[in-house]
Amino acid sequence: MLNTRRARTAHLLLFVFIGMIIASSIIGWVTNRTVTGVYEKVVADGLTTAPNPFAGVTPLYYLRNAVIYVVLIGSLMAIVLGVQATLRDRKAATTDLVLSRPVGSVSRLLGQLAGLGVVLAAAIGISFFVSWVIISVINGAPLGSADTGRVIIFALLSWVLLTTFALLGMLTGLRSKQETTALLVPFVIWSAVAFVLPQIGTAARPVSLLNPVPAVSSTGGYFDIVSMVTGPVSVTEQFKSASSIILQDTAVTGNAAFSILILVGVLAVMTVIVVATPRSRMRSGLNE
């Protein structure tokens, strides 16, 4: 936590993430105002009798673009923070000093994870609170308890996803022999999970994977079978699915419980893998 407060790179990543989450709500507000203004002029000129496109949207509509920012920017931020957390000890050779005290390796790693969890929770909490305020301004009144609860659940789910990628960064920071490899490997894994696996299972175009809703296979046959394997592994698509249902996006239907279970399960598995790192590996140096 102290290192995150001091490091400029960490500051930049946190500010970009918070700024983009807030910007997603601001963009929704500007869109609402612009479209509504044009609609009122068209109605005044007697050119349409159609209802305002924003008349029937839910207040949480303005938060849906935050889903893709969590997947793209938040995940990369979490990876960098995770790599730095474990790589810093190896570079400074402080692990031997820490482990010479009555502290076990599992406790040490869980402590680092707890620190990262607090940092991520703070970033998510700030960004979503400001978004809640912006959406309340758009709505003309504070969000009700039901919608506020959905925002909180979405924030918690975002924390689960980001913590999972932070664990991936911690793992490569512990296992890699070089600093560049420690950063490169998790980025490659993230790109495969976020883009390659969904495309294999759905044949979706890469640009469609940048949407806040999960890709849907429209070809059937082979891709339906493959998606049964790649779907649960692609945690980013599961996050999109669960988040869209929580935020009441009409483009996605179903039950979010299965996707949430997968996300929590992957987080638990990654935690076990990281804390199972041998003491000798934590004390290993880097080949610069």
Distance between the termini: 26 Å
Shape: elongated
Number of domains: 1
* SS element count, helices: 11
Are there runs of 5+ residues with pLDDT below 50, and where?
none
Mean pLDDT over the full residue set = 85
Fraction of residues in helix: over 70%
Care to count the β-strands? 0
| Oligomeric status | single chain
Q: What share of the residues does DSSP label as strand, in percent? A: under 5%
**What is the helix/strand order?**
HHHHHHHHHHH
Structural class: mainly alpha
Integer-rounded radius of gyration: 21 Å
Q: Main sheet?
A: none
List the helices and strands and how they pair.
Layout: H1 2-6, H2 8-44, H3 66-92, H4 95-99, H5 105-139, H6 145-175, H7 179-202, H8 222-233, H9 235-246, H10 257-275, H11 279-282
Helix pairs in contact: 2-3, 2-5, 3-5, 3-6, 3-7, 5-6, 6-7, 6-9, 6-10, 7-8, 9-10
Can you describe this structure?
- There is one protein chain.
- The protein has 288 residues and is an all-alpha fold.
- The chain has one domain.
- The protein is built from eleven helices and no strands.
- The longest helix has 37 residues, at 8-44.
- The two termini are 26 Å apart.
- The model has no long low-confidence stretch (mean pLDDT 85).
- This is ABC transporter permease.
